[in-house]
C-alpha cells in the first residue's frame, strides 16, 4: 500500500513525458512532406469544382475563402515587410478601426542590408514572424528583394540594396526566421520591378544573362536555400506580358528549373488575363479591380474556361494543392500551432539593435564624432528632426505603439543637463507651403497635391494625372508650353492673416475655395501676393492653373511662423556646442507608386546645409533616406551619417551612434553617385514609362561606375568606424580551384584603435580574362567580425563554382571558364586592402 503513491507519481511523470514527446511530434501534417501531400490530395479529391475555384482567388482584401464543409479555414495575409500592417476592412481599403492592431515598427530592409549581417536579417525575420503569428496572419508580404537599379525608384527603401549577392545572402535568414514562427514569408516582387513610373504597364526587356546574374539571384536563394513558401509577382510586364503570367519567368524558371512548390500570388490590381495566368503558373489572384470577387480572373472566368475545356482541371488542382500545402506548412490545421508575440520589450530592443547595426558613418574628418555627452548646448535643425515615418510609404506602413524621432532620441540621451534648441530653417525667397498645412493625402499616407497636365489651354485632354508633394513645379522641357492644374486642401494652424505668395514664370491663376484671387502673367521670377484671414479648424481648397514653359511655387506666410529666419539659426549655430542637421528624404519622396523626379534633397536643404557648414564646419549631417541623394556640400562637411528609416527605435539608435555608445559598423548597400547623370539608366536614356531594356546589362549601380571610370561620392560597401582595422596577408586554401573541393580565403583582421567595433570584410572577385564582358569586381563574399581593441581574428570566406560563373546564353546554364581569378579583399568596393590570385583549371 505504501508503494502506490510512488508508483502513481512515476506513472504520472511517465505520462507527462509521453505527452511532451507526443506534442513535439504533433501535427505530422506540418512536419512530414509525405503526409502533407497525402492530406492535400485527399482534400482535393473531396472538393467540388466551385470549391477549388474559391481557393485560388481572394474573397476579401486580405484573405482567401474558407470551406467549412471540409474543415478548411480562411487564409489570411498581411502587408509587411517592416511590421504587420494595421487591420484593413474585409472588403475595402479602409482601416478597420481596431485598437489592438499595433505592431513593432522595424527598421526598413535597406537598414538590414546596410548591416551586412545575416544575424540582423534573422533577427528582423523573427520579430516579423512572431508578430504576424500573434495577429493571426498566415502569410506576411515580405521580404522585398527587388534591386535599386535607379536612385529615383520609389520603393528602394523597402528592399536590400543594389547588389544581387548581398540581397541573396540576406534574404535567406529573413525567410527562414519568419517561417520558423508558422507564418509563410513572401519574397516580392518577382521580377524586375525596378521603377514605379507606370509600374503596371512598363515592359522590362533585359537580356537573359542580365536577368539571371542580377535580378533573379535573390529570388533563387529564397526558393532554393530559404525554402520560401510564397512569392508575389511584379506589376510590370516582361517581354510584353505581365510578369505573373510569363511562361519563362514562372513556369520555366521558378517552378520547373528551381522546383518552387509554394504559392505564386499576385499583387493587388495586376494586369493579367485568365488563360495565360492559369496556364503559365500563377496560383492565387489576390486583388483585381472588379465589382465582385466572382468577377476575378481566377473566379467565374476560370471556372467557365475549365468547363469549356480550354483549361484542364489538373491545372487548377495544382494551384489548389499549392495553397493547401502552404496552409499545412504554417500549421493552419494544427491545434499546437505557435501563438506568436507582439509589441514586447524584446522586440522593441531588437528593433533598436537592427537600426544601430545599419547606421553608416560616411565621413568623420577631425574625429568630429562621436559627440561628447558633456555638451551643454545642442542646436537641432532639419525636416527629419522630429518626423515620424511609420505610417507612410504605401503598403509597408505600420501602426506602431510609439516611434522615437531623432529629436526624442537626443532628449532621451542627454536629459535635462543639456540645452537642446530646435529650429526649422527658412531660406530666402518663397518656400513651398509646408506639409504641416496639407490635409489632402495620397493613398500612401503622404500629404500631397493633385497634379494634372493637359494637352492645351482648354484643359479637356488630360495627358498626365498624378500626386506631388510640394506645391512647386519645374518644366523638364522649357521649349514646350505646359498646361498644369494643381489643388490641395489646406488646414491652417492659427486663426488670422495668411498671405499666399506665388513666384514663377508664366500665366498663373490662384483660387481659394473656388474663388479666383490671383490671375497674373509673371516673368523673371516675379512674386505676387494674396492676403486672406483663415480660421483654425476649417479646411480651404487651394488650386492653381499654370500656362508656361518654366516654373512656379506657391508659398504661405502664416501668423505664427513655423520657420526660423536665416540670421537667427546661423547665429545659434555659431554659438552651440554641437549642431546636428537631420535631413534627407521622407515618405513624401520614398514611396510606393511614384518615383522621385530627381536625386536632390527636397526643399531648401542643400542651401541650409551649405550655410550651416560655412558658419559651423563641425555641423553633423544625419541623413534619413532609403535612396541615394546628391550632396553638393559633401566636401565641406566633416561629419556625415546615413541613418535610413530606422523603425520605432530610430531616434534612440541614432543618438547612441552620434554619442559613441554604439560604434557604427554599417556599410552602404548602394553606391552614392555624385549626381543622377552618373547612373546607367539615365546615361543610357533607359528610364521611361514604356520600356526598360536594361541596356547596362550586368553593370548595375557600383559596377557601372567602375566600368565607366566614374568616381562615386561614396562607394558601395563604404562605412567608417570610431576605431581602425588592419588587414593581414590573405591566404588561399589552394592555388588551383578544383570543382568538387572546398575553396577558402582567409586573412587576419586586427582592431588597431582604442574602441571595440565591427568590420565587414568584403570579397570581390575578378575574372581576369573572360569570353564575355564581366564587372571588374563582383561581390562574392563578406563576413562581419567584432573585435576588441588590439584583438585579431581570422576571417574565412568560402567560394563556390557558382561564384566564379556567369550565365552562358549559348548553354543556357552557369559557366565558370578556366583561367586566372583575382580575389580583392577590402573595407569597401573602392577600399581594397589585400589581393590574391588563383587559377581555375
Automatic annotation (TrEMBL):
Listed Gene3D superfamilies: 2.60.120.380, Glycoside hydrolase family 3 C-terminal domain, Glycoside hydrolase, family 3, N-terminal domain, Immunoglobulins
Ranges for domain Fibronectin type III-like: 759-829
PANTHER family assigned to the protein according to its UniProt record, in alphabetical order: BETA-GLUCOSIDASE
GO molecular function: beta-glucosidase activity
One Pfam family here: Glyco_hydro_3
Alphabetical keyword list: Hydrolase, Signal
Domain of life: Bacteria
Record family assignment: Belongs to the glycosyl hydrolase 3 family.
Gene Ontology BP term (one): carbohydrate metabolic process
SUPFAM superfamilies given in the database record: (Trans)glycosidases, Beta-D-glucan exohydrolase, C-terminal domain
Originating species: Thalassotalea algicola
Signal peptide span: 1-26
Protein name (record): Beta-D-glucoside glucohydrolase
Amino acid at each position: 500500500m505504501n508503494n502506490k503513491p510512488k508508483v502513481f507519481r512515476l506513472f504520472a511523470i511517465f505520462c507527462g513525458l509521453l505527452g511532451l514527446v507526443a506534442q513535439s511530434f504533433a501535427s505530422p501534417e506540418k512536419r512530414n512532406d509525405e503526409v502533407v501531400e497525402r492530406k492535400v490530395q485527399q482534400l482535393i479529391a473531396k472538393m467540388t469544382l466551385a470549391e477549388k475555384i474559391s481557393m485560388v482567388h481572394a474573397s476579401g482584401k486580405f484573405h482567401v475563402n474558407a470551406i467549412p464543409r471540409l474543415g478548411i479555414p480562411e487564409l489570411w495575409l498581411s502587408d509587411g515587410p517592416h511590421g504587420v500592417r494595421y487591420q484593413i476592412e474585409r472588403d475595402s481599403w479602409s482601416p478597420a478601426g481596431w485598437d489592438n492592431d499595433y505592431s513593432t515598427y522595424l527598421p526598413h530592409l535597406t537598414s538590414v542590408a546596410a548591416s551586412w549581417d545575416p544575424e540582423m536579417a534573422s533577427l528582423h525575420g523573427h520579430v516579423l514572424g512572431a508578430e504576424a503569428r500573434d495577429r493571426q496572419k498566415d502569410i506576411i508580404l515580405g521580404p522585398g528583394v527587388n534591386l535599386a537599379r535607379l536612385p529615383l525608384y520609389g520603393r528602394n527603401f523597402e528592399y536590400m540594396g543594389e547588389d544581387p549577392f548581398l540581397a541573396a545572402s540576406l534574404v535567406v535568414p529573413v525567410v527562414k526566421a519568419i517561417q520558423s514562427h508558422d507564418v509563410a514569408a513572401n519574397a516580392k516582387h518577382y521580377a524586375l520591378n525596378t521603377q514605379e513610373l507606370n509600374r503596371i504597364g512598363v515592359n522590362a526587356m533585359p537580356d537573359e544573362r542580365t536577368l539571371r546574374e542580377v535580378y533573379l539571384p535573390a529570388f533563387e536563394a529564397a526558393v532554393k536555400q530559404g525554402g520560401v513558401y510564397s512569392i508575389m509577382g511584379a506589376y510590370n510586364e516582361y517581354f510584353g506580358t505581365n510578369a505573373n503570367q510569363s511562361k519563362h519567368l514562372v513556369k520555366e524558371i521558378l517552378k520547373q528549373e528551381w522546383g518552387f512548390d509554394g504559392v505564386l500570388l499576385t499583387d493587388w490590381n495586376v494586369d493579367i488575363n485568365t488563360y495565360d495566368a492559369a496556364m503559365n503558373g500563377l496560383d492565387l489572384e489576390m486583388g483585381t479591380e472588379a465589382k465582385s470577387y466572382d468577377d476575378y480572373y481566377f473566379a467565374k472566368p476560370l471556372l467557365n474556361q475549365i468547363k469549356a475545356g480550354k483549361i484542364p482541371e489538373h491545372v487548377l488542382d495544382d494551384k489548389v494543392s499549392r495553397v493547401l500545402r502552404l496552409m499545412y506548412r504554417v500549421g493552419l490545421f494544427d491545434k499546437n500551432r505557435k501563438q506568436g508575440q507582439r509589441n514586447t520589450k524584446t522586440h522593441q530592443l531588437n528593433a533598436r539593435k537592427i537600426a544601430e547595426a545599419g547606421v553608416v558613418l560616411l565621413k568623420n574628418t577631425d574625429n568630429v564624432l562621436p559627440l561628447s555627452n558633456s555638451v551643454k548646448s545642442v542646436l537641432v535643425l532639419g525636416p527629419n528632426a522630429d518626423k515620424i515615418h511609420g505610417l507612410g510609404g504605401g503598403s509597408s506602413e505600420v501602426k506602431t505603439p510609439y516611434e522615437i524621432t531623432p529629436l526624442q532620441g537626443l532628449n532621451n540621451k542627454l536629459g535635462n543637463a543639456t540645452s537642446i534648441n530646435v529650429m526649422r530653417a527658412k531660406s530666402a525667397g518663397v518656400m513651398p507651403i509646408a506639409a504641416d498645412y496639407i490635409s489632402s493625402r495620397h493613398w500612401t499616407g503622404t500629404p500631397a497635391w493633385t497634379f494634372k497636365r493637359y494637352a492645351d489651354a482648354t484643359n479637356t485632354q488630360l495627358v498626365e494625372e498624378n500626386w506631388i508633394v510640394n506645391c512647386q513645379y519645374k518644366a523638364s522641357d522649357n521649349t514646350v508650353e505646359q498646361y498644369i492644374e494643381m489643388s490641395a486642401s489646406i488646414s491652417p494652424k492659427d486663426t488670422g492673416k495668411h498671405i499666399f505668395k506665388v513666384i514663377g514664370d508664366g500665366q498663373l491663376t490662384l483660387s481659394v475655395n473656388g474663388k479666383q484671387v490671383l490671375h497674373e502673367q509673371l516673368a523673371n521670377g516675379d512674386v505676387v501676393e494674396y492676403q486672406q484671414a483663415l480660421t483654425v479648424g476649417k479646411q480651404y481648397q487651394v488650386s492653381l492653373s499654370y500656362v508656361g514653359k518654366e516654373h512656379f511655387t506657391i508659398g504661405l506666410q502664416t501668423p505664427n511662423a513655423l520657420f526660423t529666419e536665416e540670421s537667427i539659426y546661423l547665429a545659434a549655430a555659431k554659438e552651440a556646442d554641437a549642431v546636428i542637421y537631420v535631413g534627407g528624404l521622407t515618405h513624401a519622396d520614398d514611396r510606393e507608386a511614384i518615383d522621385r523626379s530627381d536625386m536632390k534633397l527636397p526643399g531648401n536643404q542643400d542651401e541650409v546645409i551649405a550655410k550651416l557648414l560655412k558658419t559651423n564646419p563641425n555641423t553633423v549631417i544625419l541623413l534619413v533616406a532609403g535612396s541615394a541623394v546628391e550632396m553638393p556640400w559633401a566636401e565641406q562637411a566633416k561629419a556625415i551619417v546615413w541613418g535610413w528609416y530606422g523603425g520605432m527605435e530610430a531616434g534612440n539608435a541614432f543618438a547612441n551612434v552620434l554619442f559613441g555608445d554604439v560604434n557604427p559598423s554599417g556599410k552602404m548597400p548602394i553606391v552614392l553617385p555624385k549626381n543622377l547623370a552618373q547612373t546607367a539608366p539615365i546615361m543610357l536614356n533607359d528610364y521611361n514609362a514604356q520600356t526598360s531594356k536594361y541596356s547596362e546589362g550586368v553593370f548595375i549601380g557600383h559596377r557601372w561606375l567602375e566600368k565607366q571610370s566614374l568616381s562615386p561620392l561614396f562607394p558601395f560597401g563604404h562605412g567608417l568606424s570610431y576605431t581602425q582595422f588592419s588587414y593581414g596577408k590573405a591566404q588561399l586554401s589552394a592555388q588551383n580551384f578544383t570543382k568538387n573541393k572546398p575553396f577558402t580565403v582567409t586573412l587576419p583582421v586586427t582592431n588597431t584603435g582604442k574602441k571595440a567595433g565591427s568590420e565587414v570584410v568584403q570579397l570581390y572577385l575578378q575574372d581576369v580574362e573572360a569570353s564575355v564582358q564581366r564587372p571588374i569586381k563582383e561581390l562574392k563574399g563578406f563576413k562581419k567580425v567584432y573585435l576588441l581593441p588590439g584583438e585579431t581574428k581570422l576571417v574565412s570566406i568560402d567560394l563556390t563554382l557558382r561564384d566564379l560563373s556567369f550565365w552562358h546564353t549559348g548553354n543556357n546554364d552557369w559557366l565558370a571558364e578556366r583561367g586566372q581569378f583575382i580575389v580583392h579583399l577590402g573595407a569597401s568596393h573602392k577600399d581594397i586592402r589585400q589581393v590574391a590570385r588563383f587559377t581555375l583549371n
